[in-house]
Write the structure tokens for this entry.
Amino acid sequence: MLNESTVGINWWWNRFTRVSFNWIRSMPNLLGYGLAPFGIFGTRFHIEF
């Protein structure tokens, strides 16, 4: 079983450029071990031509 939440923020630098920030909080339930929570932080720089 897996519980997961994601929060994201987009910052539009100008009409063609965007920076995205994401935070993912995951809590998998591993058989025999119980909950094993962890977090992931990701960024993306996007340019449209």
